[in-house]
Amino acid sequence: AFLKSGQNILTDKAEKDRLQSEHMKNINKMAEDGKLVIAGPFMDNQSLKGIYIFDVRTLEEARELTSTDPAVKAGV
Questions:
Q1: Using CA atoms, how far apart are residues 38 and 36, in angstroms rounded to an integer?
Q2: N or C end: fewer C-beta atoms under 10 angstroms in the chain?
Q3: Could you report the per-residue pLDDT of 33-45, keeping only the tens digit for each?
Q4: Which of 11, 13, 28, 12 is nearest to 70 (CA)?
């Protein structure tokens, strides 16, 4: 899954930090569950922000896992 910029832009540092912490917790949970093989950010300030590589059987399962991400839910 490619993670893209969303419509919401956070300006509050505390909220950005909180959301990033929740994002990382979710990444760690997916990895511990054996569903996430690798994840990482793209550092070039483009609309593509990062990538998830999943170990799943279906595209729908990958979509469901991506939708658990707090940053995705927040639209950022």
A1: 6
A2: N
A3: 999 999 999 999 8
A4: 28
- Quote the pTM value: 0.88
β-bridge mates for residue 39, sequence order: 52
Where is 37: in which H helix or E strand?
strand 36-41
Alpha carbons 31 and 26: distance in angstroms, whole number: 9
Amino acid letter, 22: E
Contact of 41 with 27, CB cutoff 8 Å = no
Tokens representing 65 are 């896992």
Rounded distance between C-alpha atoms, residue 12 and residue 10, angstroms: 6
